Amino acid sequence: MNNEKAFHLLRNSLTNKSTGFTPEERKQNKLEGLLPAAVETLEHRVARAAEQCDQCPDDLARYVFLAHLQDVDETLYFALLISKPDKYMPLVYTPTVGDACLKFDRIFRSSRGLYLPITEKGRLEELIRNWTEPDVRFIVVTDGSRILGLGDLGSNGMGIPIGKLALYSAAAGVPPQFTLPIMLDVGTDNDDYLNDPFYMGLKQKRPDNDTYYEFVDEFTSAIQKIYPGCCIQFEDFNIHHAEPLLEKYQDEFCMFNDDIQGTAAVATAGLYTACRAKNETMKDQRILFLGAGSAGCGIGDLIAQAMQADGLDKETAYSQVRLFDIDGLLTKSRADSLEPFQRAFAADHEPTKDFVGMIKAFKPTAIIGVSTVHGAFNADVLKAMSEINERPIIFPYSNPTSHSECTAEEAYAGTDGKVLFASGSPFPPLSVNGSEIEPSQGNNVYIFPALGLAVYATKAKRVTEKMFLTAAQALAETLTEAELKSGLLYPPRDRIREVSGHVAAKVAEVIFDDGHASVDRPSDMAGFIKEHTYQPSYAPHQL
Fold first, then answer.
1. pLDDT tens track for 238-248
2. Given 93, 199, 272, 446, which residue is catalytic?
3. Active-site pick, 17, 63, 88, 164
């Protein structure tokens, strides 16, 4: 009575097709009697799954439904996401993933990925080898210390790596079997979780820096040994660890930090597109940030690089980018108290906490919010930007929506509809001066999946800053003139796979140009990328 073949097919989410198994497959693999009689196409199953998702009472329930679908049938899951990216990606990732992480221990159904607790320090290689897939090309890893704008969520932050890797496959076509989400459970300083009986992570405080860095070193060394061709994406690490880890590892192996580099690329792409809309160049821009953490400084660095590529010298480029943090403007008088990655932006200016006053004095063409302070771009800020710019650029990039510096409606109303707007989380369509506007969302989904596809196809040995600048430029190229005239700064999400293919091909060119590829250069780069792009389908099964 042993039927391991059927059990494997039906219980493995990568092989299960449920009613999608043909009569021949059912007979050959001993599935007869284990499934309803109907034999259904993938398209038919997508339609049913869409109806089931629609029947869920709210977005969090839809997130739970989609997570279950991924656990049962990944082909169906990705086919559903790809069928309507603009509908399902906000459910899989921002903004819904923020609520999901806050309640992750409450909505938990089954485990996905690896949880590596610091209590197993010295045994990480052994634990990682418990993963069943022999070939992993992409890992998204977090320690849960700074999840979106929500703070220290500990192991509840596992929703972020899971969601990010879903977008690798849905948005760009990285094959899902090569992806692995990982939680580095180093404890939490969140007392609510330490006292919560349902919290599933280690109930201990986060360690000292020496212990922490030794643990991360052990992790990265083990991954390179077990999966030598793997690219590691660091995600949602706090300000004190994110930049040092990037600086330490970026020249050692294939890795990047999406909060710093991916956010920088998507913001820079939005500025490139805004420049197109204003018939200006990048070197004409003056940028003022609210928020000077690793994300803000990462964006500022890439913008300064874009300005240098446009003809400015380094000193001038950095002088056209200024940042505010909780203590006000980053100035030279504060240099000793600044993090190393902040010091390039220290202005020769008297200390000030007056953001509106700085707008009037500095006269920025753009303000970018990465502060997680809801409502920080208030009416006075919007009015000041509108008074000095014919078309002010306003990017409230903080996630989730509840932490956005302003809403789309506030930005358009506060500038009499003149704004060039993009946000980190989605906002609904609105009517502006008699026209229907679809507010742009500067989501990293336009960058990291495409870059990942390029890395996967080329088997790249490194991820470089040049690749992110190229991705930003390529993304800006994808906007049509009609989309630009409609007020968009990013292409609609329903074109995400087409856009990702273009960005991936451009990034792949740089990978080959700079000698980071591990395969031979193809004659047709676009075709090469397409050949490596995952398309969900119910392929024939035979064990």
1. 989 999 999 99
2. 93
3. 164
